[in-house]
Design a protein that fits this description.
alpha/beta, Rossmann fold, 2 domains, 5-stranded parallel sheet, 14 helices, 38% helix, binds nicotinamide-adenine-dinucleotide
């Protein structure tokens, strides 16, 4: 089987490589020539465990990176889906352009799969008509499905293989055809359903996580106000067999949780008030963090930011709350940034901590879980840590260092 994967980013590249490894001939298409050049030279373009080894196995074999689509049996579209800032609607611009780009190569019998996360009813109202306008009957001439992706960055390859996979067909036959394709390597359950159930299910999965993180963040604010340790509350409450309070943090970033809930909100703004309130709570966390920092550090001092990726052990900084916090603090402080996963946007650790008056941890990278406290005491101007990811055990911090996390932030006043 020959598969053309449009978009070679965080989702498209691992997907393309797994199909190649499983004996499909794969064309990996991306408009970004820098990505294609690097991939052609055998170098991966994103940080992801096991991805380089996978590329090594298939690059001179049955995986070809290129900038233009080709004739194939199946097309899988994995391009970005941002939202329109003015009305929160899903921006289908990239997906529609990608669909148009494959039109000249389409043949009867082809399967087309949209993996990009899209707003409910996008397939029926916007994607399907594109192919019908080109003269195809969906479900008999060509087979169109929405198969959303649910992988966890950092564990993408394992999850691509083992997660249950939703197959949302425009018709039953469309779902059957798409299911056959994923059966090449997916070991999880293949769940066939309609396109709109798949769309809404994917958006709601991310909304569920966003709302629960907002609840944990709100708990932190309440506990800050009344002087209770929020982290101990979470630990204690989670011993209830049916309670799973999430981890609070400096805000929510990334390509999924910080965006997809808006797709639902835009379709039903009056009804989706919990969804919007949760988005607002999470979007306001950077301001909450910045306000606390202002109480800790006098204007004009140096602050060290540890982490600009939105997620621990990842190099992905899209929609990262770190940037909102940095923008806010830059008004009053000298900001030094260190992120070992994004060296091109940061400085070396030793340089970043020198003469600093605060270490502000914004990403739960493993490198930040075991800081050398003696080194901090020796090199900082004022040895203070504010850990918004709650990754440092405060009871192990020496007394010469003052450390805060969301368990004791009420002491910052
Ligand atoms: N990253 C994740 O963890 C994740 C998880 C689940 C779902 N998703 C969804 O998957 C989709 C893709 O996300 P991503 O993180 O892989 O994005 P990405 O930005 O990493 O990759 C998308 C790639 O598509 C390319 N592209 C854009 N238009 C193109 C076109 N017309 N032809 C060829 N290439 C084109 C871009 O250059 C880019 O390299 C989004 O809808 C996202 O919401 C992402």
């Amino acid at each position: 089987m020959k598969i053309c994967v449009i978009g070679q980013g965080y989702i498209g590249l691992p997907t393309a490589l797994l199909f190649s490894k499983n004996d499909c001939e794969v064309i990996g298409v991306d408009l970004n020539t820098e990505i294609i050049t690097k991939l052609s030279q055998g170098q991966i373009t994103i940080e992801e465990d096991g991805l380089q080894q996978l590329l090594d196995q298939v690059i001179n074999n049955n995986y070809t990176p290129t900038t233009t689509p080709e004739e194939a049996d199946a097309y899988i579209i994995t391009v970005p889906t941002p939202y329109h800032k003015e009305n929160y609607e899903c921006d289908l611009g990239y997906v529609k352009t990608a669909c148009e780009s494959i039109m000249p190569y389409l043949k009867k019998g082809n399967t087309i799969i949209i993996e990009s996360t899209i707003a409910p009813l996008s397939m029926k109202n916007q994607i399907k008509p594109l192919f019908e306008k080109a003269g195809y009957n969906i479900g008999t001439d060509i087979y169109l499905s929405h198969c959303p992706e649910r992988v966890l960055p950092g564990n993408i390859i394992h999850e691509l293989i083992n997660n249950n996979r939703i197959i949302g067909g425009i018709t039953k036959e469309c779902a059957n055809k798409a299911a056959q394709i994923y059966q090449t390597f997916v070991k999880g359950n293949i769940i066939k359903t309609s396109a709109e159930i798949a769309e809404m299910s994917k958006c709601m999965e991310n909304t569920y996580r966003d709302v629960n993180i907002a609840l944990a963040n709100e708990l932190v604010k309440v506990c800050d106000k009344i002087g209770i340790n929020a982290l101990e509350v979470i630990q204690t409450a989670n011993q209830h067999p049916r309670v799973n309070l999430h981890n609070p943090g400096p805000g929510v970033g990334g390509h999924c949780l910080a965006i997809d809930p808006y797709f639902i909100y835009a379709l039903a703004p009056t009804e989706a008030d919990i969804i919007k309130a949760s988005r607002d709570t999470n979007s306001n966390m950077p301001q909450f963090v910045a306000n606390k920092v202002r109480k800790l550090v006098e204007k004009g001092q140096t602050i060290t930011i540890l982490g600009i990726a939105y997620k621990g052990n990842s190099d992905d900084d899209r929609e990262s709350p770190s940037y909102s916090i940095i923008n806010e603090l830059e008004k009053d402080y000298d900001i030094k940034i260190h992120d070992p996963h994004i060296p091109e946007k940061s400085i070396k650790y030793q340089e970043a901590i020198k003469d600093s008056s605060l270490i502000l941890i914004l990403t739960a990278h493993n490198e930040f879980k075991t800081l050398n406290y003696e080194e901090l005491i020796k090199n900082m101007k004022k040895p203070i840590i504010f850990d918004t990811c709650n990754i440092l055990p405060l009871n192990e911090v020496p007394t010469e260092l003052t450390a805060y996390n969301y368990g004791n932030i009420n002491k910052i006043n």
